[in-house]
Amino acid sequence: MRRVAKVLEVSVDKVTLDTAMERMIELLNEEGCSMVTTPNSEMIMAAADDEMLMEALEDSDLCIPDGIGLVIASKIQNLGLLERVTGVDLMGRLLKYSNDHKLSIYILGGKPGVAEHASMNISRIFPSIIVVGHHDGYFQKEDEDKIISEINHGKTDILFVGLGSPKQEKWIYEKRKRLDVKVAMGVGGSVDIWAGTAKRAPKAFQRLGLEWLYRLIKEPWRYKRMLVLPKFLIRVLRD
User: Fold this and answer.
1) Same domain, 210 and 160
2) At 162, which CATH number?
3) Can you give the pLDDT at residue 204?
4) pLDDT at residue 122 above 80?
């Protein structure tokens, strides 16, 4: 039985990294394509004004709290979220499990060459994983049938989609009935991290939930996006 908290009308699972991985294993053993989403404060705010994104999040089989703002909101409203569970950490756990059980993956997203480099690095670290294929995120509508055919023909177990939000959530939501995979997970910039084209914040920032501050220091032009966090918390307090 899933235990969820309603964060501004979005159902977010009350999980730790360990219990999220346990849920992942359950989904890998179920029929059909399960959808995993990784919302942060920005995505939760966007869903309030985007009906399709809200539907995608609500239709998820696992929706993890990937954002310190969600944990703070939970404490303010006593919602019971246990901890922040990042998409990149859950992806790492899933890759280790896939290696141990010889599962197959497909990576979709990133700039040209990024998914390819991510696949190469994953294959080097996890040699028992079967990498069915990869494709960058700069595809046209007319390319989708070919991509989906490649994913399905390769008997993919796990599809990692890094198209950025809300595109990746909407894409999985729209295509899930056509995807012959066990799990389709929106992973955003995790593809860049595995490709080596982006780096995570140092461990100290991660432990304190300050990865957003590290990104702001390294990329100050992102400040407008960072303003979503205080707006999100103000809305939580108002509600």
Assistant:
1) no
2) 3.40.50
3) 80
4) yes
> Which amino acid is present at 150?
E
So what's the pLDDT on residue 213? 67
Contact by Cβ (8 Å): 134, 150: no
What range does the domain containing 225 cover? 204-234
Measure Cα distances from 40 to 80, 111, 115 in Å: 16, 22, 23
**Sequence-distant (≥ 6) Cβ neighbours of residue 233 within 8 angstroms:** 41, 69, 72, 73, 76
- Give the pLDDT confidence of 73-107 residue by residue, as tens digits: 999 899 999 999 999 999 999 999 999 999 999 99
Q: Which of 178, 234, 232, 238 is nearest to 42 (CA)?
A: 232
Is 156 strand, coil or helix? coil
Tokens of residue 27, six digits: 């989904």
Q: Distance between CA 94 and CA 77 in Å, rounded?
A: 31
Cα dist from 212 to 123, 170, 209, whole Å: 29, 24, 8
What is the pTM assigned to this prediction? Answer: 0.92
Q: Is the pLDDT of residue 223 over 60?
A: no
